[in-house]
Structure formats: structure tokens, C-alpha cells
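Replying to the earlier thread about multi-chain prediction with a worked example.

Input:
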Amino acid sequence: MPRMVLSGNYAQSYAAKLARVHVIAAYPITPQTAIVEKLGEFVASGELSAQFIKVESEHSALQACISAAALGARTYTATSSQGLLLMHELLHWASGARAPVVMGVVNRAVAPPWSIFTDHTDTVAQRDTGWIQFYAESNQEVLDTTLMAFRLAEHPDVLLPAMVTEDAFYLSHTVEPVDVPTQDEVDEFLPRRDVRGLIRPGAGVRLGSFTMPDLYEEFRHKIARAMERSAEVFFEIEDDYHRLTGRHHGGPLPTYRVDDADAVLMTMGTATTTARSVVDALRTRGNRVGLAKLRAFRPFPVKEVRQLAATVDRIGVLDRSFTFGAAGAAFTEVAAALYPETHRPALKNFVAGLGGRDLTPKVLEGMFKALLKGDGPEVDWPDLKRRAEVVRHG
Amino acid sequence: MPRMVLSGNYAQSYAAKLARVHVIAAYPITPQTAIVEKLGEFVASGELSAQFIKVESEHSALQACISAAALGARTYTATSSQGLLLMHELLHWASGARAPVVMGVVNRAVAPPWSIFTDHTDTVAQRDTGWIQFYAESNQEVLDTTLMAFRLAEHPDVLLPAMVTEDAFYLSHTVEPVDVPTQDEVDEFLPRRDVRGLIRPGAGVRLGSFTMPDLYEEFRHKIARAMERSAEVFFEIEDDYHRLTGRHHGGPLPTYRVDDADAVLMTMGTATTTARSVVDALRTRGNRVGLAKLRAFRPFPVKEVRQLAATVDRIGVLDRSFTFGAAGAAFTEVAAALYPETHRPALKNFVAGLGGRDLTPKVLEGMFKALLKGDGPEVDWPDLKRRAEVVRHG
Amino acid sequence: MSPHGHDAHKATAYITEQDLPERPLATVPSDVIKTASWRTFLPVIHLEACTKCYVCWKFCPDVAIGIDEAGWPVVRLDYCKGCGICAEECKPRAIDMVKE
Amino acid sequence: MSPHGHDAHKATAYITEQDLPERPLATVPSDVIKTASWRTFLPVIHLEACTKCYVCWKFCPDVAIGIDEAGWPVVRLDYCKGCGICAEECKPRAIDMVKE
Amino acid sequence: MIASELLAQAAFIEGKHPQSFPFFGVERRGAPVTAFTRIADAPIPVRTSITEPDIVVVLDASLMRTIRVTAGLKKHGVLLVNSDHPVVGIDKRFEGRTATVDATGIALTQGLGTKSMPIVNTAILGALARVTGIVSLDAVVEAIVKFVPAKIEANAEAAKVAYREVQELQAVIH
Amino acid sequence: MIASELLAQAAFIEGKHPQSFPFFGVERRGAPVTAFTRIADAPIPVRTSITEPDIVVVLDASLMRTIRVTAGLKKHGVLLVNSDHPVVGIDKRFEGRTATVDATGIALTQGLGTKSMPIVNTAILGALARVTGIVSLDAVVEAIVKFVPAKIEANAEAAKVAYREVQELQAVIH
Amino acid sequence: MARLTIPAEEYMRSGHSACPGCAATLVMRYVLKGLGPNAIVTLPACCWTVIGTPFPTTALNVPILDCAFEATGASVSGLRAAADALGLADVIVVGFAGDGGTADIGLQALSGMLERGTDALYVMYDNEAYMNTGVQRSGATPLGAWTTTTPVDATSRGKGEGKKDVMAIVAAHRPAYAATVNVAFPEDFLKRVEKTKTIRGPKFLHAFSPCPPGWRYPPEKTIAIGRLATDTNSFPLYEIEGGKYRITRKLGRARPVAEYLKAQGRFSHLTDAEIAAIQSEVDGRWARLLALETLG
Amino acid sequence: MARLTIPAEEYMRSGHSACPGCAATLVMRYVLKGLGPNAIVTLPACCWTVIGTPFPTTALNVPILDCAFEATGASVSGLRAAADALGLADVIVVGFAGDGGTADIGLQALSGMLERGTDALYVMYDNEAYMNTGVQRSGATPLGAWTTTTPVDATSRGKGEGKKDVMAIVAAHRPAYAATVNVAFPEDFLKRVEKTKTIRGPKFLHAFSPCPPGWRYPPEKTIAIGRLATDTNSFPLYEIEGGKYRITRKLGRARPVAEYLKAQGRFSHLTDAEIAAIQSEVDGRWARLLALETLG
Ligand SMILES: Cc1ncc(C[n+]2csc(CCOP(=O)(O)OP(=O)(O)O)c2C)c(N)n1
Ligand SMILES: Cc1ncc(C[n+]2csc(CCOP(=O)(O)OP(=O)(O)O)c2C)c(N)n1
Ligand code: SF4
Ligand code: SF4
Ligand code: SF4
Ligand code: SF4
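Result:
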């Protein structure tokens, strides 16, 4: 298994190449562009035998993938921010049509005002669309998770689309060492797609008909069940991947030094890395803190969150996005998951790192401290630049 | 104040007309079409002096409204289902640009499979976009709330877009008596728009610039605060409306017979009406049950939900949509809102009425009974058509 | 109580969630749906006038004109919606529309 | 440590949330940003050769050629990015690009 | 304006609280459709389809060849059918009243619609007023005057004629 | 391929764990840009911008007219500047080492880039290898051979020449 | 069987849900007769979504893949790419969309498909309005036509803008092949469809598709009105191959457009002056078409 | 002040963030010089989003309203409607978008704006690729050009498809006015812009906009390359008014297209045969343009 110095974007491209995708359709957007350019090079040079559809928008990119998937192709697309938002109707479509499209997303802030920097609003706002969602912390995880996503999406008990996200620039443009599995290894892990039951030339079938109220709800429930099953299937897949490559990223909610922790911070994406070193630093100073990485946001790891909470008294949830008129999405879902539990840790929501604001060790340390102290508001924006003066309205 | 027999769709059209909107841009989709056709007639006949933009898609409809609003126009659009989903990028845009666009949405299921019937997935999936959301129970409420939405959206402490939703067919195509305020009354309630600070001909200003990580987060926080303020402003507005018309719809979470209730069901939209009669029926039979209507979904009425829960032991939340990999969205948010409370009622999620499935008194009664008994799963689809046999997978 | 064509699937075996395919894939030929109920007038072909030009066959939007072994056009009564195109287009006026 | 044009707003009074307008409305003229740092070569106008044709003014993408009271073209040093178009297009070759 | 909505308007004129809505397949012209109307003295406390109606009105009798129109109809309810001859033997279980009116004939006489597409809404409403008394003929006529966009006279006349001519089957024939 | 990424590749060749990333304004050609590289013996435990670097490399000395390049640079850090003359008086507070190399001149001699846009990445890396020892010249050359898409020879040569020619200011002149 | 002038095989089934007299069904019927069993149809929202009958039934003997209203061109490219990648070379990919789904909300996806040169057939059945949602104006609605969003009223005389010239837009993309077809001329229609099978690259058919309820005429007149459209030069039949225009049905003398307009309720409000204006517009377009034909 | 051949007033400010030698700035500068202070510019994602400088600065003396990448035409219609409804009749609404935002992802919104007849000016500055995201192919990228998504490689020779003819697509919509303009000819450019002020309805300008980094040429050559584009008939200057074509700059004899191609790195891989093919394509298009001019 060769080790290369790769950007997060190239990690996506290599994963799609190793997955031997049949069809790629994507539209450029900063900071995703390199993913697609690299795949384009692979196709142009003959290293990857795939159809590359040069679409005129992200909306078309996803429709092309969904349609190609209906005919049995393994498909891949990648986007970010506005591009993902523009796909929204088709995100719903992909899950409704049970199209196992795999998509790389570079998390970037949404406009206006324009910003090309890290922010999770784009993908979090897709939480109701029926996509499996993984957030990656390193380029290694990007590559590994993307390969697992293909197998998960196409699993006959699942048949759902999946996205693997990476923070803009912090991963997309950051190069670091990555172990890249060989083609043989991947071929073993991820055989060609099984396309039974899809639309077939010559058959009088139709995928997506008008459906009356007496059956529509039942199709929705099938998706709900498939999503539930995907959580179980993912464990199998990760074990398989581990057997093959020796790497295991710890399931949907890997934890770090939580066993005896007084306070645990829950993070998504690259904030995790820095938070981990903050945990170490604080531990050295005698603070019993720990970390949980919300790696899978869909399906939401309710069971794992409950397990974690069983032994911890304070949990902070860091959202790199904010739902106006509510709170951070991860925070809301963690709170909801823990509602029926008997042991209920104090919960705090930290909203920070929006629009590319650096999540420095200092800011993260502040969160742990606020957790340990137990003060401050339920939902806090700890890194906001504010003046002491009274807020002017209007 | 004349009383007319109107459909929910026409209630939307009359509200927009009475609001003297400057610009309408909308694209047809069943079951919203009559809203726009009627407005078109008002404009064609000269009853309403407004610009009607015949757009080529919903995406363009909303962009046209946002841009018109930036210049100071009062704007209105209406859509449903796929149309709303197609607007998704611009829903984010409207809140980011602080454009007080008002939109009527007919709640309809999303494809595939195609369905034109009631389902709340379309609007619920927009919960992260920064729009104020009201769900209406009757055509009267559609009309009244739409008028209030204009004033709320444009309030200088708010400046956010707002949508008023109505269930497909159950309101959109149902005619019933509606009190329609006079133009004078509405003019008093809703003066012309105040457009200070918007883009102005001749000025070297720019709305929506590229913004670096040092300030983007602060703009997001401004939206967050505006959304919070909107909750307070809404109370004032509803009181004003009450003074003028004698009608008051009870704030963001009106309740019915909850005071001594053992179990309360929380509903959105037209299910409320039927549920109310079920409450009465069950009360006659000695069951102490009550009802809470989630009228405002954004901002989410955390305070009111907590108040309600303080005196109730069992709450059921009925979602007419389902978030795959999680639960019903309203259920999740209710649970999160109640998490830090000391008195915590047992919570149950009912997922039903999807894709136009009728929510009959019998089905609703079943929910109350399950609540009172306290049995069944945490998240239940009580009206699913299932066989007793073992579920086949794949 | 919702007596139109769209209920035709009720005639099929799709009743509960378990009957449904995992994906919304339709496979039942539409001709299980009889659209005769849409009809007010029925085309009656007078074979003595028919020239076997098959214009009626060609223009029927409902594929409701068949051709029998002898080459005569026949109305497939289950499906004809009574639009009247065949009668209108039949040059020798061999088709009459009659109230049922 | 991020020394490019996009930090120019740091020179402005927009520092905290309270300094910001409610909407993302920009109002500061861009010429507070000095783009001189982009430049490697500087155009030097030799007035003795200049015919006042103003081709340099017309084609400057950075509006970095001014015209003084006497009608002579002048390079606005704060803004010229050194693209060299003026020198290239000046027919009488009155402009030289010189390394700074 | 479809019959059910006009009925709602007529009921409203009489101070009632109507609620009327179509069951909307994706309707294509000519395809059979269903609409529901509830009429009460106070606001209607439910928002669902009607599965057990008191009255069933059939605008096209040919439907009765394929559809059991009395499904759900209350045992002692009313069935009103647009037909030029008495309808019999519909449903042995049905014990309510049955009436017929030749609304198509009346509509064509009044010049409403075309031979292949007669517009029978107003005629049937006149008959309904007579057979059920749920609204008065006056209210029907007033609703027609206010809400029918064209041929107001003819429509009003159709309602009146139908009011006169509707035939109630005197005995329930099994 | 920008210098920081090539540096990462070189460090990787030597068995180190590099992490390298640009601070990305929406870059326009000619506009000043910043990139960060961390090099360690084990995986890098943070993912943030670098505000207090050990080493600052300036590829265009003219920036120093408007920007305080030593802001944040550790007190005893290293400043390497592409310049054909010694840079002095930059920052009185800075007490570390300063070195210069005429990377532009070297690049142009090797035919890398154009006069208005010389490509100085590889030359500066050669100098960096010498001044800091953070990577070896061999690793830089190997990285160039593996990852530079064109003019490999010339780029390798540029690195070598710069390695030879880099000038360290012997005393910190205030 | 007897001597038929178009292929006997049926790929469209009875039982579908179209209005009586709907021409959109004939468009589908003829397209599939011409293409044969290897077609895969991708279908956006339009009348055909409903015509095709609800779950679990389907009205075609070939596969239908429903796609988003605005994305037909993209769906076509996706299917083609998948077929190529999976070695299903024989598959004929067909996008089948209404005029609204083509000229308005789906124009971009179509343009993308044409620009990237997808080897497939795109059929626009043109009933000149959004019919599935109940007769709203589309870009392809002709000047003066009544629709629910172009009312006939004091200030409004039906649609105020002209019909979007989709063929000209398509032609601007230099597709491999484009042609207009009309269900009133089945033999000609079939010839065009069959021709598309012989040409690689993007192909486009603009199919005239009268709609009784939307155009307000009795259902039995569908074919007659189709014939009038072409015979009055309102809907001329022509093809464009490799940039060259060829009129495929040339008339001795066109009939007055008034005959066509007067047969339809949607034009019944038009005054003689308005009709004359339309006539001169039709004449102008025809003259331009003749000129384009000579252009080569 | 001295005798200037184009208006002296500046509405574009210094300090902007364009690359040295960027022609997109000149397009904006000239458009605004021609329109004057009543312009309101709506701007989708494109290089100009960045050129316009980040918050809180702005590079224009007139308002800019940022809009979604694909929605310029809709934003234009919204602004026009608002201006009309609010009695701001003098306002000149300008949509200003790149070729990607016009020919690809924004084509539909543009088509809608043209079809509904919005009284406004739409300017497409054509740098023939997605430059803001780092030189990816757009529909308007010409045949054979290198971009990052049309690599030059064993199996790939730059873009395999021809340049989307946006003017032809626009012309198919019969706009009130459309013209091509080129920053290398500022006086002609200004004439076209000023003409748009006299015409009601939708107006379109296709502005040639060389891009040094994207086209791989030294920044000082921007004007020279612009000139070559027109002088080789690669980018002819013409206008279309009421359907009539008029070539606004006619050459005695065009220079060989090779001169234009060879000045740019993006074409440096082209063989003589490939250049000859491009030459004949250019000749063909020019001949067609001449024919269209005679068509009237
Ligand atoms: C995004 C989106 N917007 C609107 C609709 C609603 N819609 C469905 S079909 C249709 C009209 C289709 O018109 P056309 O393409 O002309 O086909 P026709 O119905 O006339 O056959 C509309 C507006 C939709 N399905 N999706
Ligand atoms: C929906 C969406 N997709 C993609 C992008 C990313 N994007 C921003 S600008 C741009 C390219 C613009 O190209 P063009 O319109 O040709 O203008 P140019 O940058 O060349 O000036 C792209 C792809 C976006 N902002 N929004
Ligand atoms: S282009 Fe040259 S001659 Fe003309 S004004 Fe400028 S410097 Fe003078
Ligand atoms: S070098 Fe370029 S930026 Fe500087 S003055 Fe000349 S044209 Fe303007
Ligand atoms: S509305 Fe028109 S196009 Fe649609 S099915 Fe009916 S006749 Fe056909
Ligand atoms: S990339 Fe090209 S178009 Fe964009 S700013 Fe630079 S020179 Fe101008």
C-alpha cells in the first residue's frame, strides 16, 4: 500500500478512481475544483476508464449521476456550498429513487456574503434529504471513508446515496501523508456494483411513478428502514476495511479519552484534530476532558451518543454552522437523542468556526473550560468579535 | 370586513393583494397554481397595481423577489414541493441578504415517487435556511398570518424572509368561509415598506460582497439575533392585528384543553382541526387530553414548548414528514428544547399523514390512546400498511 | 369513493408495505386499467363503408383500435375513451359516434 | 500573516460585530486598497515622446493612469499593478517598464 | 366552478358553514373525479376526506357500471344520479332514498356545454336542493348569479328546471 | 506546484510528517498569497493557520514595503527572503536569523518563468534547505524530480544553485 | 396483417390516463414505433408523468425513468454515459419533455446536452403551455393565446410575447440533427424518427401536440388542427442536418392562419386586426425559413 | 481636459483585485462609462465577484447587487420590476456575468429574461472559461483550447467541442438589441453601449475579455490579443437590431487565425492541421455572418 502526500481533494479523486466509477459528472466550484480536475486527468490519461460528463450545473451533475445509477453505473460527483444547495431537489430525488450515488463535498460557507471558507452549513442543511453523511478529519479518512461509502451506498440492504465531506482548505488544500490502498485491495473490498432490480433495456418498467396516498407513505418508510440498516451495515464494512488495510476509524462516533472524563467535547471535521491536542494539553494540566468525533451525522448515531453520555456529566457540542431560530444542528440532535435517558449530562452548544474562522487551540480550550466551569449560555458563540457596549439594533 | 367563501389558495392571493405587493414572481406547480393565477387576474384587471414577473423557474422566481426586495419593493412568491426544493440555494440567499420576501407554500410531498398530496417534507427540509415559518390550520389563518408575515419580515428589527404554509388540498383546494379585512384596515396594519439602508440608485454600495473569515461569522450572528427578535416582534404584531380585526390565533404555540391534560398531542397544519375534535370526543369519554399547535416552526418556540411541558406528563409530536436517519423534525426539536428542563414529560413521535395519507379521527385517536397507555416505540408510524409477516429486506 | 383511473392499482396486489418493491419501480402494464368509464359516446364502425385505410388505427390516442385477422378495424371497448378522432378522420365516414 | 489585497478591510473600522451594518452592505471605496504591492515592473512615462493620445489612459485596467492639469498622463503609483499594457500600446513608445 | 364549490357558496349564503374540496387525482379532462362538501351550522371540526357521506351525487351515471357509488354511503342516506331513466338495482345493501334527474338533458336544452361535454353542475344543484333541502333553490340561484362566470341566466334556469323535474324513486327496489 | 507543497513532499521523502496548506484568498495572479507548512516527526496534531511560525520565507521582497512579514515570527526564528541584495532594518523587534537569495535571478538564468513572472519556487527551496536544514538538498531535488511537471532539470539546478548561493546576514543589524 | 403505413409494433399501452383526444400520446406512440424496443425514456414532470399511469402500472413497453422537471437533458446524458460505460451500446436514450420542461425550466439542461454532444434523442412535445398544472403560459405559448396566466381581459389580450423559437435555439447549438414533426402527418413523423437512428450525436425533435382542453377545442379535432397548423405555415415541417435547413413539407399555397386560429377557443377573442398581425408574423417566419433553406 | 475619445467619467475605482492586465475590468469600465450614473449592476459569481473587492469595500461608484451564479437574468428582471413599481424609471438595470454564468449555468435565466422582454442590459464578458475557479472549460471555451478540464494529453487535445454560439442563442430569442464588443476597440464598444440606452426591451452585449493567466499570455498583450481576435475574424464585431444583422467592423482581408492562436499558451499544442481546421471553421462562421447580414 503506497503512501503519498495528498491533499484532501486528491484523496477524493484517488478514492473514486480506485472505486472504478463508471460515470463522473461534476461542476467546478472552489474549493472542490481539484477533485474533478484530477479525475479528469485520470480519465484523459486512460488511468481510469470512466465516462466523464461535463455538465453545465451541479443540478445537472446530480441528475446525470442519478440517471446513470438507475441503469446500474457506479457514479461519483463532488461539490461544495452553493453547488450543493443547488442540488437540493435532487438530493431528495437520489434518496427517493434509491440511487447509491457517492458525493464528495468540501464544506464551505454559503452566500451572501460570499465566502469560500470552511463552514458546515452547506451539508448540515441537507440533513433532511435522506443522504448518509460522513465528516472527515484527515485526508486519510477522506480516502478511506469514500471507499467505504461506495460499498455502503450500494449494499442491497441500504441503496442510499452517501456523501463524504471535508473542511475547505483545512483538508481540501492541505497536503499530508496518506496511505493509498492498491487497486487489488480495493477490488476485493469493493466489487463491481450489483444492479439487480434496476431499470433494464427492453423491460416495461418505470422508476419514479406518480403514487397515490395509499402507498406513498410506505415508500418513505422503506427509506427510513434502509437508513437504519445502513448503521449496522457500516460496522461490517468498516471491519472488512480494517481487515484489508489495517485501518479503522472507529465507527460513527469515535471517542478519545472519554472514559473518566468530566467533560467531553463533540466535534465534526478538522476541529477534531486540534481539539485532540487540546485534550492532551488539558489532561497534562490535570483536567479530565475527552473528545467525541461526530463522524456520521446521518444516520445519526443515537445509540453511540447515548452510550457516551451514560458516563459523562458534561458534554459540549461544537457546531460549525447555526440553524437560525433554533440552535446548532448537532447540538439539537444530541439533546434529542439524550432526552429519554436517565443519566443526562449538562449540554452546551458552541457555535464557532463559521465562514473560515480559525478554530485555534485557544478557542477550543475555552470551550473545555466553559464546560468544566458549567457557566455561560446554553448556546454560545465563544469566538464572536464583540464590543462590550450595548448592542445597536436594526 | 366582508366574509367570503375562499380556498386556502385564494386566501393567499387576497392577502398579497391587500398587502399591496409591488412585485410578484412565481412559477406554477400543483397545488399552488390558483394562488398565482388569481394574483395574475388581480393585476390584469387592475385591481392590484403590481409588477408580475413571469419567470421560467422557481429558482428565478425567488432570485427576482430577492433582487426586487433589495431595491425596496414588497415582494411575494408562492410555490410547493419541488419548486421549493429548487429554490433552496436562494432560500439561504434571502436570509443572508436579509430580504423580507414573503412566500406562500402549499405543503406537498416530494418526488420520487411523484405525489401532489399533503406532506411537510418540503418546508421542514428548509428549516436550516433562515426563514421564518408559519403553518396554517385554516384558510382564515392563511390569510391573517400572511398579512402578519409581511409586517414581521419587514420589521427593522427582523428583516428576514417568511413563509406561510398550507396543506395541499386540505386547505389549498378547500373552500370555507373567511373574513377578509378591508383595504383600509390592512393599510393601517401594514404601511408601505421602509427601505432605508438598502441599495439605492447612484450610491457606490454593494450588497453581498466576498467576506473574509474575520467578519463572516459576525454576519451570521446578526441573522441569529434577528431571528430571535422576530419571536418577540411577532407578539406585538399579533396584538396589533387583534386590535384591528378582532382575531388572534394564539401566538406560536396555541394550545387547547391542555391545562389539566394527562397527554398532549402537538400538531402542525390541518391535522390540528381534526385532532381538536378528537380531543373533545375523548374528553367526553373522560380522557384528559389536550392539543398544542406548532404554528411557528421557525423561530422554534422553545419558551412556549417548555411552558407547556411544565404541566404535562406525556407529549406526542405528530410529524407529517420524516428525517431519515433521525426522527420527525418537530419531535427532535421538541425533545431538544425540553432537554434541560427538570420536569420532563414522556415524549413520543408519531409519523403519519405522509404523501396525502388522510389523518382520520381514528388514526389521531389512536395516537392519544398510545400516549395515554405509554406503550409502543419512541418513534411510531401508526398508520403504515403492514403485514404481520416478517419484513423482507433488500 | 375516489372512483377514477388512478385507483386502478387497487386492482393489483400492492396493498401493504411488504408488497412493494424496495424502490418505486412500477412493472404492471397499464392495460389493467380500463378507461371505458371515461367514455360518453362510442365509435361504431360500419364495415360496409370501411376501406381498411387504418387511419382510425393510426390516429387513435388510446391504441383502442385493433385490427382483426380479417384486417377489419375493431374498437377495443375496454379502452376507448370516445374522443371521436377515428370518426372525424375516417374519410369514407365509416364510423359513427353513438351515445351509450 | 495574510498579506494580500483581501486584508485591506483591516484598514477600515470594521472590527467587531457591532461595527458591521445589519446587512452585508459594503460602502467603502476600493481605492483604500493600494495594489502597488502587486507590481514588479513600473511604467515610466517619457513625456518628451508622449503625444497625449491617451491610449494608456484608455486601456489601463486599473484606472491607474491619471491626466494632470496640463494634460499629461501620470501613473498613479498606489494602484498601478505593472501589467505593462500602457507601455505595450503606446504607439510612440513613450512608456518604459522598469524593474522597481 | 365545480358543483361542490357552488354548493358551498349556496350554503354560505344561507348562513351555514360549508367546507368543500375535491379529491384530486391529477385530473385529466374526462377522467372521473370526486369532490366532498360538508355543511354545518358551525365551523367544521375535521379536515379529512369523507368516507361515510350522507348524500352521494353522481354526475355521470355510466360510472355506476364500474364503481360502487354507494360504498360508505350511510344506510339511510340519499343518492342523487344524473340520468334520464330511473336507476335501479344499484346496491342491495343500500336502504336510503334514490333520486334521478336528467341534468344532461336540461343542460343541453339550456345550451350549457357541448353534446360530448355537457355542463351539468347547476342542474344537479337544483335537483339536490329539492331532494335534500340542504340548501334552498333561492340560495343555489343566488350562488349561480354571484359566482358563475358565464351564461348566468341559463345556469339559473337549469337549476330551476332540475328542481322541478327531479324524480324520486318512491320505493326502494332491490 | 507551489513551494510549500513541494517542501512537504521533500519532508515526506525524508520520513517526516508534513502538513502544508495555502491561506487562500480568492487568489488572482500577481496578488500576494500566503502558504503554511508544518513538518514534524509524527502526525501533526493541529489544523489551524500558523500565526507564530519558526521560519518565514518571502518570495517577493517588494511585499516587505507594505507588510510586516515578521509579525508572529518567533523571536529566534529564521527569515528567508528572495532578494538580490541584503535586506536590513526590517523589524527591530526581530532577533532571529535573516538570509537572502536571488531566487529570481537564479530562476531566470535557468529559464524558469518569464521576466515579469519568474518561477522562484524551486530556487527558494534550495536556499531553505541550506539555511534551515529542515530538509536536505537531496530531498528537495528528489521532490522536484517526482512532482514538478516540466523543466525538471532546470528546476533541480535552480535549487542546487540557490543552495550554494544563499547569503546569511552574519549579524543582526538593527 | 394489412398494409400499414407506419410500423405495427406498439410500445405504448392502452389504459393510460391522457385526456380523450390528446396528441401527446400519439407523439409518444410514433416516437417509440420509430425507435423500437431499445429505447429508454427519461421523463420529467409533464402531462406524460400522469398519462403514464400511477404506480404500480406503466403505459410503455420500454423503461421509463422519471427525472426532475428541469433536468431532462442531464438525465439523458447520464443514461447515455451509463449505457456506454456498461457496454449497452444498443440502447437509444430518449428525453421526452413538454414545451415548458424544454423551453423554460429545462432549457439549460437541454443546452448542456447539446453542447457536450450527447448521442441521444430529445423530443419536445409542444402543447404550447403548462398543461399538467392546468394551462399556464410557457415560453412556447404563441402570441395572443389565452392561458390562465395570460388572461383575456381589459388590460390583457392573451399572451403578450411571441412564441419562443426553440428550434432556432437548438439550431444555434449546431446539433447533429433537428426536425419538426406533427402527429397529423404520421408517415413524415416516422421518417424523421427513423432518421435519428442513423445519426450519432444530439438529435432534437420538436413535435406539435394539440391539446383539446388546453386549446379549447373538441377532442375529435386534434388531427384536423394539427393539419391546419402545418397547412397554414403556423407549424412548418423542416429538418436541420449538419446546419443545413430543409423544408420537408412544402405547400403550394398556405391556407390563411385565421382558419387555424378560429378552430381553437384559446384564440377566440382575437380581432381581425390581431389575426392579421399574426398572419404577417407567420409569413415573416416562413420567408425567413425559406431564406435559411437557401443559405445552406 | 484633453480630447478623449471615450467619456472621462469613471465609475470603476482603482484598488480592485483583478489580475494585472485583466480585460474584464475594462469591460466593466467601458460599460459604465457608456451607461452613466443610473446603472445598477447585478453580479453573479464570477471573477468580478472577487475583482469587486471584499467587504467592506466596493470597486464601483454605482450599486452592485450580488446574485446567485445561475440567476443573473432573474435578478435583472427583479430589479427592473422593482424599479418600475417604485417609480425609479431612470434606473438602468445591468446584468454583468461571465461566459460560464451566461452560456452554461445562467443560460436559462437569461433566456427567461429575454423571453419576458425585460427592459435591461445583459453583458456577458467572455473570457472563454471559468476563470474564477481556476480555468475550467465553459460552453464558450473554443475548440482546441487547453483548460484544466480539457487537458492536453495522449487522449485529449484541449476542448473537443466547439464554442457555444451565445449570440445565435440570444438572437433566436429576438431581443431588442444584441451586439458583440471588444475592449481593444473602446470607441466602438462605447457606441454599442450608448445605443442600448436608446432602445427599450432586452439588450445583450457579448464582450470579448482576454485573460492573461487563463489564456496563458503575458499581461501586456491583452489589447493586442483582443485586436487580433477581431482582425482574424475569430471574434467579429456585429450587432443585431430588430432581427437585422449588421457587421460593425468589416475588414478588407482578415489576418490568419494562426496569428491569434499562436499568441496564446492555451493553443500552443495545436498542430498545423488543427489550426487549419480552426481556420476553416472561422471562415465558415464568417461566411454565415455575411449571409445573415444580407438576409435582413
Ligand atoms: C421544479 C418544479 N416546478 C414546477 C413543477 C410543476 N409542474 C409539473 S408539470 C408542469 C408543467 C409542465 O409543462 P410542460 O413541460 O409544457 O408539459 P405539459 O404538462 O404541457 O405536457 C409543472 C409546472 C415541478 N414538477 N417541478
Ligand atoms: C451554483 C454554483 N456553482 C458553482 C459556483 C462556483 N463558481 C463561482 S464563479 C465560477 C466560474 C465563473 O465562470 P464565468 O462565469 O465564466 O466567469 P469568470 O470567472 O470566468 O469571470 C464558478 C464555477 C458557484 N458560485 N455557484
Ligand atoms: S499612450 Fe503614450 S503617447 Fe499616448 S498619452 Fe499615453 S504615454 Fe502619451
Ligand atoms: S502598467 Fe498596467 S496598471 Fe500600470 S499604469 Fe500601465 S496599464 Fe495601468
Ligand atoms: S391536458 Fe392536454 S396534453 Fe395534457 S393529457 Fe390532456 S390533452 Fe394531453
Ligand atoms: S483570472 Fe482572468 S478574468 Fe479573472 S481576474 Fe484574472 S485576468 Fe481577469
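Residues 146 and 158 of chain G are 4 Å apart (CA to CA).

Feel free to reuse this layout for your own posts.
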